[in-house]
């Protein structure tokens, strides 16, 4: 067994971000059978404070040999099983910064604790039955959430809103398997198998698996966000659009064409979806070497984007330069933004019939942003990603397991259709049961667990 799965050792880690002169509190967390003993060695609680579970003690962290004062701190005690890991857990709440928490952690390690590996606290919570695997993954997703909707989806997973239907589906499959195997083993003692009922149950399970599997796209959208590139000729108002949208001056705005030489990035949230907006350099032919590099980066950013905002001016008609840019990005999902409508009528602009989404804006006056966000959400929904109910939003690993379960269930249906013997029914049914169990962590391998929890931060 690898060190990560050895629960005989007490583990320790800094559980908060350590940034100089940032943050008032730094936490050192320990979990394991020796956590309390280490705490008693290092922490001096003056007066008659009792070391009971779920109490907060006030005192001092001291070096056990020299008695040198390390920090004035609080100590939180959570005895097993009423803790995050279902082991004895203690937390030193030190002053924020680098030195106090690092010195406290070092003392814990000198007293026999081992430095925790990434995600090891949550791994122990899973191994000790406090969390299933979907809940454990939701912990990491909650920590890394980039929008309120992403946090809502993670909290839903933490509350078991994915695990519950998966367990129900797996239980139904187990019941079907038991019915079939009973007929195989005791054919003469039991009534004939109700094949119509079995088929109906399988259809229900398959429909629910398909419904949950359909949330994979919205789950990916919540976790990675939407990458949007703003492209267009120089001086059409791309930077003004970014500034108006982000409500801050992220990009330099002048009347000189070619001002933006590199990608300017802004992180926004639209309808609960994290959006990474890239303001690119104006695309044109140029002899300026620096600007030429910026133009090439703009082209690459447009090709890598999930959605392209092609900005043109209302003050000029569709130009040959606009056409060239359009031809370079027309294979991407695209919204045409007709800017500077405060200076000219939008009716003067003609554009290719292939462009379906058009938004008008006067970015310099902060006009048109609401319409732009609405168009973006409509483009997202046209991709069959609904930005309304985020209670179910499965990740890539869960989607892979569900896909395996779906294939196995479809093969069971095919086996029944071909009137093959009952033994053949059970083969793929067991495959579906195993795949569903992998989602919640039943029968999952150490290598899979190691891959999942290695993505966590060390203190979690």
Can you walk through the features of this model?
By secondary structure, this protein is α/β, with parallel strands linked by helices. The chain is built from 15 helices and 13 strands. It has helices at residues 35-42, 99-110, 120-127, 133-143, 148-158, 163-185, 195-213, 216-224, 238-246, 289-304, 320-329, 369-382, 396-417, 422-440, 446-453; strands at residues 11-14, 25-31, 43-44, 55-62, 69-78, 89-95, 114-115, 226-232, 264-270, 273-279, 307-313, 334-339, 358-360. It has a seven-stranded mixed beta sheet with strand order 3-4-5-6-2-1-7. The chain has a six-stranded mixed beta sheet with strand order 9-10-8-11-12-13, with helices on both faces. Strand 11 (307-313), helix 11 and strand 12 form a beta-alpha-beta unit. Helix 6 (163-185) packs antiparallel against helix 7, helix 6 (163-185) runs antiparallel to helix 14 and helix 7 packs antiparallel against helix 13. 39% of the residues are buried.
The largest beta-sheet arranges its strands as: 3-4-5-6-2-1-7
Class by SSE composition? alpha/beta
Q: What is Rg?
A: 29 Å
Question: Residue ranges: pLDDT <50 for 5 or more in a row?
Answer: 250-262, 284-291, 384-389
Question: What percent of residues are in strands?
Answer: 15-25%
Give a brief rundown of this model.
By secondary structure, this protein is of the alpha/beta class. The protein has helices at 35-42, 99-110, 120-127, 133-143, 148-158, 163-185, 195-213, 216-224, 238-246, 289-304, 320-329, 369-382, 396-417, 422-440, 446-453, and strands at 11-14, 25-31, 43-44, 55-62, 69-78, 89-95, 114-115, 226-232, 264-270, 273-279, 307-313, 334-339, 358-360.
């Amino acid at each position: 067994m690898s060190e990560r799965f050895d629960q005989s050792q007490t583990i320790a880690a800094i559980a908060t971000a350590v940034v100089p002169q940032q943050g008032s509190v730094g936490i050192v967390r320990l979990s394991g059978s020796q956590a309390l003993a280490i705490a008693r060695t290092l922490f001096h609680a003056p007066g008659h404070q009792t070391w009971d579970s779920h109490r907060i003690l006030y005192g001092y962290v001291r070096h056990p040999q020299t008695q040198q004062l390390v920090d004035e701190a609080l100590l939180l005690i959570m005895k097993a099983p009423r803790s995050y890991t279902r082991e004895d857990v203690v937390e030193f709440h030190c002053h924020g910064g680098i030195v106090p928490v690092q010195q406290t952690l070092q003392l814990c390690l000198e007293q026999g604790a081992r430095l925790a590996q990434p995600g090891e606290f949550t791994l122990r919570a899973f191994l000790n039955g406090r969390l299933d695997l979907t809940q454990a993954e939701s912990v990491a997703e909650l920590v890394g959430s980039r929008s309120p909707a992403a946090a809502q989806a993670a909290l839903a997973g933490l509350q078991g809103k994915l695990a519950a239907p998966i367990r129900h589906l797996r239980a139904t499959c187990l019941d079907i398997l038991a019915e079939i195997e009973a007929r195989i083993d005791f054919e003469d003692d039991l009534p004939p198998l109700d094949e119509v009922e079995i088929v109906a149950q399988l259809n229900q399970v398959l429909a629910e698996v398909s419904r949950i599997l359909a949330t994979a796209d919205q789950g990916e959208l919540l976790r990675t966000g939407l990458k949007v590139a703003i492209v267009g000729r120089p001086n059409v108002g791309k930077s003004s659009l970014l500034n108006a949208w982000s409500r801050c001056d992220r990009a330099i705005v002048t009347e000189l064409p070619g001002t933006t030489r590199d990608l300017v990035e802004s992180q926004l949230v639209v309808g609960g979806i994290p959006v990474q907006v890239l303001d690119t350099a104006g695309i044109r032919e140029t002899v300026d070497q620096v600007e030429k590099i910026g133009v090439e980066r703009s082209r690459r950013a447009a090709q890598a984007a999930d959605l392209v905002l092609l900005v043109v001016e209302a003050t000029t008609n569709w130009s040959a330069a606009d056409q060239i840019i359009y031809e370079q990005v027309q294979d991407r999902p695209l919204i045409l933004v007709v800017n500077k409508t405060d200076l000219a009528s939008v009716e003067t602009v003609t554009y290719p019939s292939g462009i379906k989404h058009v938004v008008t804006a006067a970015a310099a006056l902060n006009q048109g942003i609401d319409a732009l966000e609405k168009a973006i959400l409509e483009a997202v929904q046209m991709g069959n990603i609904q930005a309304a109910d985020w209670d179910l939003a499965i990740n890539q690993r869960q989607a892979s397991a569900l896909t395996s379960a779906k294939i196995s269930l479809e093969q069971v249906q095919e086996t029944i259709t071909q009137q093959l013997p009952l033994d053949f029914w059970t083969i793929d049914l067991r495959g579906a049961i195993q795949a569903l169990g992998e989602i919640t962590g039943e029968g999952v391998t150490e290598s899979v667990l190691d891959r999942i929890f290695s993505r966590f931060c060390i203190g979690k």
